[in-house]
Amino acid sequence: MNASETGYRDWSNLTNLLDLPPQQWPMYFKEMLGVPAFHGKNAARWVFRRNAYSWQDMTDLPAQLRERLSEKMPLLTSTLVKVSHADDGACKILLRHSDDALVEAVGMPGTKGRTLCVSTQVGCAVKCVFCASGLDGVQRNLSAGEILQQVLWLRREQGDFHRLVVMGMGEPGHNLDATLQALDCLMHEEGFQFAARRITLSTVAPRGTLPQLAEWGRQISVAISLHAAVDEVRHELVPGVAKRTLLDTLQEADQLFFATGREYTVEYVLLRDRNDQPEHAKELAKLLQDRRCHVNLIPYNPVPELPFERPSSETMDEFVHTLHDAGLSVTLRTSLGGNQDAACGQLRRRTTSPPSGSEVV
Ligand code: SF4
To answer: How far is the CA of 238 from the centre of ligand 1 (A)?
Structure first.
């Protein structure tokens, strides 16, 4: 059994109730706080369904209980240190945890409502060469509650949301139990009651990740970040999977499709002159032929410290046409948040090493 099935076992060590699955809140209230279990159910409804952000907001909980909870374990253990708005409506927030770990999350406008993008780790060990999040390696994993706090802060800033993507800082496959526990809370009837099909998890698919997702079996969408169609190039661009072959990865992806019946997405960041040429498109088309997948091409979002550029529109269009002509389903993503630290990890880096004090508000 993994943590997403069991939640917390040792309640005496619990410091953030969001780390406990919502269905266990009633039992926690009864056994650890000595109050009727229904107060726990009520509190979970306040947090996940009624937009409460502190125990004091829960006006029908006994005042003494609210006081005790406020002293014992604040609902939100992170503080909001920066909100960054882009002209296109994207909003990036930066949270600071008690150990000073900084975490980013983003809300983006969409045709049916906002999409939230959350992080699963502080930093990232995969070290994709084009990504700001991986520049300093990984600091630590986020707990399920810390992942959920990003959702709560973004909802507080921007209101309800329509989709959620796990595509922020970190590799979910390196912190899968906590990530799946957070997603279970999103979907659970005692949690956010969010539809599985509105959730996308993006991963480079470290060994074991896709089989665990297949076993978990929820109907979420899975996006597999390939970024290359031959192993040599992928290992160069995504050093964290240097021991994995593309064939192994895609065979596991095909197994995931057979287990869940859900087609997967292949993500491919287009980098000028590195993986955007006609031969790269042909290699990708050959690799994905007859697989049950959709290809999402992502124009590179430049990072000041890194030597990569976005390809020209003509090059990207040609890439799309090559895949399309080969019979693949393909889209070219529109990047949002272009003028405000939009690329993954940029806001955190600029706040970690700012021109002294200039970024934190
Ligand atoms: S792109 Fe994703 S997996 Fe790669 S370093 Fe950045 S956060 Fe990690």
So the answer is: 8
